[in-house]
C-alpha cells in the first residue's frame, strides 16, 4: 500500500487520508488529480475537449420530434451546451475553451482519468517484474473498494455552493416512479455516469418505444383471435356432441392410458383458435419487418448519439490496452502501423488459447443439450407412472377428490419436470458464468471492449441454448415423430415418444413462453430490488465518501447482465412470436419497470460507477441482427409445422371439393374427420384393446387399404404445402428486409454533412488559433527588430 501510494504521488496525484466516522478500523484515502496532471493524461487518452461553442443549427430527428414532448422541462434540467471539439494537446492549451479550470474537465472525465492512473500505478517492482493496478490490490484485500463519489444525496438537495446536484435531479426526473411516463434525460445520464451507461439506457428506451407499436398490433391480433374463437369451424366441430362427442380417440400411452372423447378437448381447442388463426400469420410477417425497422432506425439514432457525445472516432484513437494485458507483454511482433509491438503470447500460443476456449464452450453447450434430453426422458417415464397411479390415488382419496379434474398426469409431469429444469438451469448458469470468465481471462484480450465482446459471445451462446432449448423442443420436435398406435416410436427402446396435448403443441408452446417470460421478468426485478434493499440502509449524515462506501458495488461486468437480460427477452419477442402475439405487450410492461428499476439502482442504491466511453452497444448489435435473421425461419416453421394453419388451407382448397369430397364448394366443414385416421382395435395388444375402433390424429391410410397405416396422399399434400409456404414466406420476408436495410442508411445524410462541416470548422479554428498564438509569440521579436533597423522606410508587419 505504501509503495502504491508513493507511486501515485510520484505521478503528481494528491492523496489525503480520512478516518471513518462509523467504523474505527476503516481509513479512507481521497484521491485528487491536479489540473496539470489531468492535462497530461487527457493528451495520453486523446480525450476530445471543447475549443469553441457550436453555433450551427442542430438537426432534429424524427424520433426526437415524436418524443420531445415527454422530456423533463429545460427549466429543471438545462440543455447541455454544444461545442466544437478536438483531441486535447497540452502544448495547445490556449486553443481550447478554458472558461474555468475547475469546470474544464467534467467530473466524469476526471474520474475516468483518475481510474486510468490507479489502474497503471505500480505497487511492487522486483527486477524486471512489475506488478501494478488497483484491481489486483482490491482482489488481494489491500483496499476494500475504489470508487468515484456521488455529488450529493439522492433525496435531499445539497446546499453547498457550486454543487450541481445531478444525482438529485436524476432521481426526481428519471428514477422516481412519478416520472414513469417521461423520456430519459440521456445527456445528463451520460454526463453523470459516462457514455457506456448512457448508450445502454438510450438503447433500452428506444427498444421500449418501438415495442409500443409491436404490442399494439399484437394485442389487436389477440383480440381478433379471442372474439372469433367461438365461430371457428374447428372448435365448433370439436365441441359438438354429435361430432366430437361421438369420436373416441386412441390412448396416449401404452396399456395404462384411457380412451377419451374428442369433445373433452373443447376448451383447449377454443384456446388454440385464439392464437392459431390468420391474424397470427399477418402478425408474424409484421414482426419480421418490425425487427428490421427497429435495428435500422437504432443505427441511425446511435449515429446521432455518437455525434452528440463525441464518440465517432473513439475506438480508433482512445481505447488503451487493459492493465492485465500490458503486464504480460513479453514477446515482440511486427506491427504494420508501429513496426514493432509487444504482445503477451506468440501466434501459436494465441491459437492454443482460442482453441481451448472454443472447445470448452462447445462442451458446456453439449452438457445443456444432454440435460434437456435427460428431462425429456424423465417426462416420458413419469407420464407413464402418473398415468398408472395418480388417477387411482385420486379416485380412492376423498380429500383429493375435488382436484381430480385438475391434477392430471400431464400437469403433474409438466410441473415436476419444470422444477427439475429450473434447478438444472440455475446450477449450470452459476457454474458456467465462472467458467466463461476464466476462459476469457485465459484468452487475454487486448482492450476492455475486446474482453467484453468475447465474454458476451460465450455467455449468449450458453444462455441461448439454456433458455430456448425447451421452446425449440416443443415447437419443432415434440409430437412430430410418434409413429401410430400399433407401432409407436420409443426412446432408448423403453419410453414411448411424447405426444402433444389435446389442444396441440402450439397451445403448450404459448403456455411455456408466457410462463418463462413473465416468471423471468418478475423474478429478476424482485431479486434485484430485494438484494439491494437488504444490503443498503438509509443515508445517514456522515461524510459523502462514507455514505457511498455503504452502497452496493456495480461489479466488474457492469452492464453485461442488463444487456443479457434484454437480449434474451428480445429473442422471446421475435423468435416465437407466431405462437404468442402478446409477447411484445409483456415485454413492454417489463421494460417500463426495468428502466425505472435500473435507474433507481444506479442512482440511489449503487456506488457511482467509473465513467467509460462507448461508441455503440458492442457485440450485442451483431447478436441482435443474428436473432432477427433466425426469427424469420423460426416463425415460418412454427406456422408451417406447429400450427394447423397449413392443413386447414390444404383441406379448404383441395380436399373439401371433388375428387376428394362430394362437395362442390370450398368449405371447412368435415376438416376434423379429414385430420383423423382410423385404427382397428384388433391391431392393439390384448392388454389395451377397447370395445370400439378408435381414430388418432394423423394423415394415414385406413385399415384394409393396400398400404394401411402408411402416410396417405393427404399427408404428402400437406407436407408439400408446408415446405412451399416456408420457402415462399422466408424469401419474401428476407427480400423485404434486404430492401429496407438498403433504403435506410445507417447515418442520416444531414448528419453526415453536419459532421463534415464541423470537422472543417474545427480545423479552421485550430489553424487560426495557432496563427494567432504564433503572432503573439513573435511580436516581441518583431518589436526588437524594428528598434534595431535604421532604415525607417522598411516596414515589418506580422
UniProtKB/TrEMBL annotation:
Residues 1-186 form the Anoctamin dimerisation domain. This is Anoctamin. GO terms for cellular component: plasma membrane. Keywords: Cell membrane, Glycoprotein, Membrane, Transmembrane, Transmembrane helix. It comes from the Eukaryota. Residues 189-758 form the Anoctamin transmembrane domain. Its main location: membrane. GO terms for biological process: calcium activated phosphatidylcholine scrambling; calcium activated phosphatidylserine scrambling. InterPro entries: Anoct_dimer, Anoctamin, Anoctamin_TM.
Amino acid at each position: 500500500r505504501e509503495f502504491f501510494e508513493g507511486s501515485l504521488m510520484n505521478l503528481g496525484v494528491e492523496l489525503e487520508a480520512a478516518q471513518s466516522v462509523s467504523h474505527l478500523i476503516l481509513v479512507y484515502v481521497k484521491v485528487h488529480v491536479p489540473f496539470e496532471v489531468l492535462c497530461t493524461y487527457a493528451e495520453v487518452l486523446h480525450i476530445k475537449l471543447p475549443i469553441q461553442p457550436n453555433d450551427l443549427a442542430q438537426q432534429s430527428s424524427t424520433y426526437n420530434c415524436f418524443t420531445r414532448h415527454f422530456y423533463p422541462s429545460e427549466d429543471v434540467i438545462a440543455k447541455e451546451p454544444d461545442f466544437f471539439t478536438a483531441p486535447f494537446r497540452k502544448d495547445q492549451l490556449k486553443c481550447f475553451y478554458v472558461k474555468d479550470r475547475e469546470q474544464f474537465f467534467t467530473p466524469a472525465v476526471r474520474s475516468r482519468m483518475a481510474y486510468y492512473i490507479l489502474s497503471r500505478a505500480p505497487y511492487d517492482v522486483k527486477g524486471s517484474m512489475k506488478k501494478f493496478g488497483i484491481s489486483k490490490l482490491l482482489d488481494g484485500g489491500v483496499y476494500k473498494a475504489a470508487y468515484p463519489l456521488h455529488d450529493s444525496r439522492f433525496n435531499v438537495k445539497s446546499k453547498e455552493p457550486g454543487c450541481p446536484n445531478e444525482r438529485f435531479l436524476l432521481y426526481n426526473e428519471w428514477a422516481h416512479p412519478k416520472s414513469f411516463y417521461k423520456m430519459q434525460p440521456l445527456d445528463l445520464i451520460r454526463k453523470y455516469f459516462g457514455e457506456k451507461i448512457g448508450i445502454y439506457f438510450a438503447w433500452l428506451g428506444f427498444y421500449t418505444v418501438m415495442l409500443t407499436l409491436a404490442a399494439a398490433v399484437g394485442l389487436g391480433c389477440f383480440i381478433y383471435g379471442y372474439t372469433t374463437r367461438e365461430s371457428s369451424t374447428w372448435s365448433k366441430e370439436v365441441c359438438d356432441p354429435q361430432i366430437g362427442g361421438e369420436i373416441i380417440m386412441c390412448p396416449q400411452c401404452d396399456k395404462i392410458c384411457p380412451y377419451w372423447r374428442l369433445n373433452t378437448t373443447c376448451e383447449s381447442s377454443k384456446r388454440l383458435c385464439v392464437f392459431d388463426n390468420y391474424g397470427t400469420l399477418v402478425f408474424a410477417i409484421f414482426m419480421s419487418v418490425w425487427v428490421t425497422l427497429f435495428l435500422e432506425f437504432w443505427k441511425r439514432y446511435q449515429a446521432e448519439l455518437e455525434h452528440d457525445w463525441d464518440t465517432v472516432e473513439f475506438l480508433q484513437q482512445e481505447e488503451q490496452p487493459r492493465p492485465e494485458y500490458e503486464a504480460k507483454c513479453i514477446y515482440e511482433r511486427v506491427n504494420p502501423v508501429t513496426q514493432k509491438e509487444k504482445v503477451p503470447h506468440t501466434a501459436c500460443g494465441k491459437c492454443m488459447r482460442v482453441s481451448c476456449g472454443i472447445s470448452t464452450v462447445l462442451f458446456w453447450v453439449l452438457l445443456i443439450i444432454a440435460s434437456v434430453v435427460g428431462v425429456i426422458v424423465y417426462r416420458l417415464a413419469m407420464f407413464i407412472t402418473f398415468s398408472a397411479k395418480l388417477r387411482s390415488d385420486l379416485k380412492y382419496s376423498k380429500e383429493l377428490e375435488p382436484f381430480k379434474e385438475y391434477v392430471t398426469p400431464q400437469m403433474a409431469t409438466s410441473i415436476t419436470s419444470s422444477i427439475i429444469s429450473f434447478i438444472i438451469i440455475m446450477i449450470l448458469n452459476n457454474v458456467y458464468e465462472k467458467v466463461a470468465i476464466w476462459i476469457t481471462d485465459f484468452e487475454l484480450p487486448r482492450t476492455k471492449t475486446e474482453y467484453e465482446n468475447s465474454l458476451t459471445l460465450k455467455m449468449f451462446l450458453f444462455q441461448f441454448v439454456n433458455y430456448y432449448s425447451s421452446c425449440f423442443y416443443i415447437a419443432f420436435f415434440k409430437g412430430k415423430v410418434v409413429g401410430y398406435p400399433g407401432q409407436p416410436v420409443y426412446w432408448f427402446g423403453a419410453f414411448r415418444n411424447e405426444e402433444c396435448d389435446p389442444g396441440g403443441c402450439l397451445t403448450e408452446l404459448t403456455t411455456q413462453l408466457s410462463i418463462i417470460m413473465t416468471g423471468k421478468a418478475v423474478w429478476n426485478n424482485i431479486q434485484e430490488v430485494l438484494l439491494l434493499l437488504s444490503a443498503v440502509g438509509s443515508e445517514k449524515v456522515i461524510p459523502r465518501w462514507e455514505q457511498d462506501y455503504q452502497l452496493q458495488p456495480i461489479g466488474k461486468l457492469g452492464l453485461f447482465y442488463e444487456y443479457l437480460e434484454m437480449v434474451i427477452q428480445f429473442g422471446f419477442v421475435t423468435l416465437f412470436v407466431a405462437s404468442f402475439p402478446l409477447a411484445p405487450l409483456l415485454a413492454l410492461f417489463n421494460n417500463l419497470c426495468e428502466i425505472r428499476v435500473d435507474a433507481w439502482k444506479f442512482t440511489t442504491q449503487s456506488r457511482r460507477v467509473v465513467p467509460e466511453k462507448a461508441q455503440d452497444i458492442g457485440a450485442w448489435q451483431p447478436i441482435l441482427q443474428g436473432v432477427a435473421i433466425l426469427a424469420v425461419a423460426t416463425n415460418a416453421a412454427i406456422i408451417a409445422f406447429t400450427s394447423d394453419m397449413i392443413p386447414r388451407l390444404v383441406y379448404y382448397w383441395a380436399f373439401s371439393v371433388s375428387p376428394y369430397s362430394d362437395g362442390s364448394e370450398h368449405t371447412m366443414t368435415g376438416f376434423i374427420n379429414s385430420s383423423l385416421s382410423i385404427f382397428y382395435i384388433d391391431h392393439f395388444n390384448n392388454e389395451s384393446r377397447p370395445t370400439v375402433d378408435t381414430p388418432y390424429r394423423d394423415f394415414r391410410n385406413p385399415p384394409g387399404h393396400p398400404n394401411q397405416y402408411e402416410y396417405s396422399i393427404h399427408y404428402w399434400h400437406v407436407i408439400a404445402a408446408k415446405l412451399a409456404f416456408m420457402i415462399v414466406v422466408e424469401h419474401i420476408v428476407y427480400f423485404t428486409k434486404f430492401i429496407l436495410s438498403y433504403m435506410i442508411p445507417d447515418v442520416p445524410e444531414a448528419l453526415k454533412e453536419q459532421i463534415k462541416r464541423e470537422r472543417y470548422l474545427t480545423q479552421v479554428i485550430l489553424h487560426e488559433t495557432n496563427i494567432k498564438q504564433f503572432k503573439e509569440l513573435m511580436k516581441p521579436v518583431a518589436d526588437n527588430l524594428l528598434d534595431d533597423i535604421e532604415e525607417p522606410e522598411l516596414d515589418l508587419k506580422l
